[in-house]
Amino acid sequence: MRKCKLKGKKITVNEVLCEESIDKIIRHDEGYRVLRTLRGSPPYWERTKKDIFAMIRQLGIPTWFCSFSAAETKWKPLLRVLAKLTKNMNYTDSDILKMTWFEKNELIKADPVTCARYFDYRFQMFMNSVLKHDTSPIGKIKDFFIRVEFQQRGSPHVHILFWIDGAPSLGKNTDNDMVTFIDKFITCKRNSRLAEVINYQTHRHARTCRKKGQSVCRFGFPLPPLDKTMILHGFDENKPINEVSEAKKNFVKVSEVLDSLKSGDGCETTLEAFLKSLKMSYDDYLLALRSNIKPGQKKVFLKRNLSEIRINNYNEILIECWEANMDIQFILDPYACAAYIVSYISKGQRGMSNLLSNACREAKESEHDMRQQMKTLHEIFESGGQSSAPYNTALKVVVCGIGQVVQYRNASGDQRESVTVGFADQSMAAKGTLYDMTKKDTLRVGSTVMLMNSIIKKDMKTIVITNKSKVLKTSPLEDVPRERIQEGHALACPPPAETVEIKAVHTSPVKTLLTIRGQIISEEMERTVKVGGVDTSVRALRVKDESAVCKVTLWRDFAKRKTSVGSHIKLTDVAVQLFNDEKSLSTTSRTTLQEVESPEVNKTMTFIAFEWIDSEFLTLTADTEDFPEFSISKETLKIALQCTETEEVEECLLRKLPLRANINFKEREILQITVC
């Protein structure tokens, strides 16, 4: 807590020692602000995003947005170093050319640290010797912002914003000035001298092109041909609907024809012949391209012919020196820069953001203190980033059990669900948390599955399954010990907490899970409170058994459950809470609530008085703190007192009071009594 700033607020010793104050700090995430100083965490990138906004305010709109990827299997110097380090062999260029892709891949996997260090060294040399060279291959650099990120396969790439001295910008220069500047530094043409490196720029559709069920390539390939570089504007909002609709239809037609062309097709075809085959005029073609631009925005279309529709933008000097895939874009729209580029370049690792959000939720709802909660976050953060380590292992496991579905709200306030799953193999059992409910149907108790891209925590006993994970069906896993199956089932469906008398609540540590049975003696009306900014239902009961009385707070769906005063209930897995020096109970995600019959109770008591209810029943008053009364039939008492045939029950009872007896009763009705 002393490492984080709380916006001027001070935390006193009494507040730190108070359980309620600590819970409040946790609920408002004040205890997690220390993560802002931890490089790579979502709060860290959020702060970095603000730094970029400050740069934009001071320096203006950036000129270039560039990306540089790695090509480990193509970089000969790297492969030579890896061969020397991992195999103690000296490879020549001809040896490397003879290597298969698999052999290169094995070299890279054998020493990922050297690969990362080589990428960093190569980029630093590239930055200092090429980008900042006096020849200014992309213009004289005034300032820049860099972010290196690692893809799931472990390969790094760099995103950079460049501010170029004297570059034209939107609002200050004409479109023609910007087009002239773009043509000076960016191209997409086929160059026979650069054929090998241009191959890195050629787009080939893959699974990632059509994420989330998209029918078209999300990267926009193939790109439309044009006879010159142009900056096109999106339609105005007052454009007639029929004209917009016609233009959109033409764009779909153009896209379908371009997508049907294979790389190299139409090499000799001119733009004029292409439009003639579409039966479309040049003006209609430009309107079709404009229909795919959002209203009020602008977009650069490079000069390209039909043989270049799958070649991405590049700079000839940069790609020749970098020898790997690159991208360079001229930044036109300040809104696009702020809303898209800044978000992209400073994005927190999305999987990590979701994971930490869920982890924070789990931590808050757990029985652990704040120190343990922070330890949990540390473990997930350390093992859950975009590096390849957590995703390396494919696990073949048996599904042993599936717990209850838990509803929660993520950091954005959206309703989400998760479920706990128990897994086992021949050696051990593990607890899994599934956050992508679309995969739940594949997880059936008793089936064997292959888990890929799941996150394994350091203890190797906890698995996190996210939307990036895969759950695949596979052949049965044989020889899994029965005790492992049972252990995995217990992890997913843990048995209820120990059933105790209510008086044990007042001596149990805070956060302890207990199960109680008792009678409702009072209940409050349902009310709504804010929890994490979300309206949440809550209601309180007072429950008692023969040992004591305690307050039980019902949250969310439990608060809406119908209960009645006088009924007996059983509550499993309720947590002990402390507020204003009073112990109480609170429902958790594991809690169940059910009505039960009143229990039979055995007790030894001393009775000091009685009163007749009618001719056949009377009540006995016990000598305890609240002087409880118990009803009993005349015949049952007569047998217990061993009255003579001529002696009346009342006469016999008066003679033996105070009467010490062991009684078996239910709801204050004595079923059996034995005089001590």
What would your notes on this structure say?
- By secondary structure, the chain is an alpha+beta fold.
- The chain folds into 6 domains: 1-36, no CATH class; 42-202 and 311-347, no CATH class; 220-310, no CATH class; 389-491, Beta Barrel (OB fold (Dihydrolipoamide Acetyltransferase, E2P)), CATH 2.40.50; 502-596, Beta Barrel (OB fold (Dihydrolipoamide Acetyltransferase, E2P)), CATH 2.40.50; 600-675, OB fold (Dihydrolipoamide Acetyltransferase, E2P) (Beta Barrel).
- Helices cover 32% and strands 26% of the residues.
- The protein has 20 helices and 25 strands.
- The strands form 5 sheets. A 7-stranded mixed beta sheet has the order 11-12-9-8-7-10-13. Strands 14-16-17-19-18 form a 5-stranded mixed barrel.
- Strand 2 (141-150) and strand 3 form a beta hairpin.
- The radius of gyration is 37 Å and the shape is elongated.
- The chain starts with 12 loop residues before the first helix and ends with a strand.
- Mean pLDDT is 82; it is low at 364-368 and 384-392.
Secondary structure elements and pairings:
Layout: H1 13-17, H2 19-27, H3 42-59, E1 64-69, H4 76-87, H5 93-98, H6 101-110, H7 112-131, E2 141-150, E3 156-164, H8 175-185, H9 195-201, E4 230-233, H10 241-260, H11 271-278, H12 282-290, E5 298-301, H13 316-322, E6 326-330, H14 334-345, H15 350-365, H16 370-383, E7 395-409, E8 415-424, E9 429-434, E10 448-452, E11 455-456, E12 462-465, E13 470-473, H17 482-492, E14 513-523, E15 527-531, E16 534-544, E17 549-555, H18 557-560, E18 568-579, E19 582-586, E20 592-596, E21 600-612, E22 617-622, E23 629-633, H19 634-641, H20 649-656, E24 659-666, E25 669-675
Parallel strand pairs: 9-12, 17-19
Antiparallel strand pairs: 1-3, 1-6, 2-3, 4-5, 7-8, 7-10, 8-9, 10-13, 11-12, 14-16, 14-18, 15-16, 16-17, 18-19, 18-20, 21-22, 21-24, 22-23, 24-25
Helix pairs in contact: 4-6, 7-13, 10-12, 15-16, 19-20
